[in-house]
Design a protein that fits this description.
The chain is mostly beta strands and 219 residues long. It contains three helices and eleven strands. Helices cover 9% and strands 41% of the residues.
Length: 219
């Protein structure tokens, strides 16, 4: 499913400017010359663009999954045992591409792969997960954050995979504002306990005796 997240207010935010971003993207890679003075193959190849595609005026924003929210693990009584596992999820990967020229907004297309599961404590054959997409000014403030529902039916199985697409539109203050000023983060809507479980690299234990109170740690 493709959805659109538009940041209408970002154009008013004061941004760090990369004045040479346009030149850096459009300038061909440095290379030598052939004996007859013509550009070398390296430089000729750098000028070649895919059909129907113009070069962006700057780099794309970085898109990544926030580690603390990359997994969703429900645990009964917050005990990390296999028998206590309810619904689970993991963001397996994200691919992205962007486009912007002149003073156009930055349009980022993303595709996310979710792997979802249900354990012994799960009730029912379906679950609506929740995840978020946030746009930040690199290493500083969150500019926008939006939540999305991800309804999943397991159809009698214990796991399934779902692909989601998002289009993020980021207005720019001016034509010199580069995509390098922004970062896009993705994660599940998790509880503080789930975030800590992810942060320390925990995995649930298989308790063959029914007496183990411990948590498996895999760092």
């Amino acid at each position: 499913m493709r959805r659109v997240l538009a940041l209408a207010f970002v154009a008013a935010v004061s941004l760090a400017i990369l004045p040479n971003s346009a030149q850096a993207q459009s300038r061909p890679q440095e290379g030598g010359q052939n004996a007859d003075g013509s550009p070398s193959q390296t430089r000729q190849r750098a000028r070649t663009l895919p059909l129907g595609r113009q070069a962006n005026v700057g780099p794309c924003p970085i898109v990544r999954v926030l580690y603390d929210a990359a997994r969703y693990v429900e645990l009964a009584d917050n005990r990390a045992l296999a028998a206590n596992v309810g619904y689970t999820g993991e963001i397996e990967g994200v691919t992205s591409d962007c486009r912007y020229r002149d003073d156009d907004p930055i349009v980022v297309d993303t595709n996310m792969l979710f792997t979802l599961g249900k354990g012994p404590s799960a009730e029912g054959d379906g679950r609506t997960y929740r995840y978020w997409v946030a746009v930040t000014s690199r290493d500083t403030a969150v500019l926008a954050k939006q939540y999305f529902d991800l309804p999943v039916q397991f159809d009698g199985e214990d796991r399934t995979s779902v692909s989601e697409s998002q289009t993020i539109v980021i207005p720019r203050a001016n034509a010199q504002t580069s995509g390098a000023n922004f970062e896009i983060l993705i994660g599940f809507d998790v509880t503080p306990e789930m975030a800590e479980f992810n942060r320390v690299g925990s995995r649930f234990c298989v308790d063959a005796t029914g007496t183990s109170p411990g948590t498996c740690i895999n760092r």
